[in-house]
Amino acid sequence: MALQPSTATELLREIESVRNKMNELSSHKNRTSKEVIELSMYLDKLLNEYEMLYKEKQ
Questions:
Q1: Distance between CA 33 and CA 26 in Å, rounded?
Q2: Taking the CA of residue 35 as centre, how many other CA atoms within 13 Å lie in the half-sphere pointing to its CB?
Q3: Taking the complete model, does pTM exceed 0.85, yes or no?
Q4: pLDDT at residue 2 in the model
Q5: String of b and e for 9-34 (b: at least 16 CB within 10 Å)?
Q6: What is the pLDDT of residue 33?
Q7: Domain residue extents for the chain
Q8: How far apart are CA 29 and CA 46, in angstroms?
């Protein structure tokens, strides 16, 4: 999963989407399943990117 979104608004949308997918998936699969962990890692990257954008604007 590559980091595509570049604006804060796009990042927030993607963060929310991935968070929802991860929560939905983890209700059907073990939280340590490969799919859930991959989404979690992608969410971490998105959150880090958002934090970097936020810091740049301060």
A1: 8
A2: 10
A3: no
A4: 47
A5: eebeebbeebeeebeebbeeeeeeee
A6: 96
A7: 8-57
A8: 22
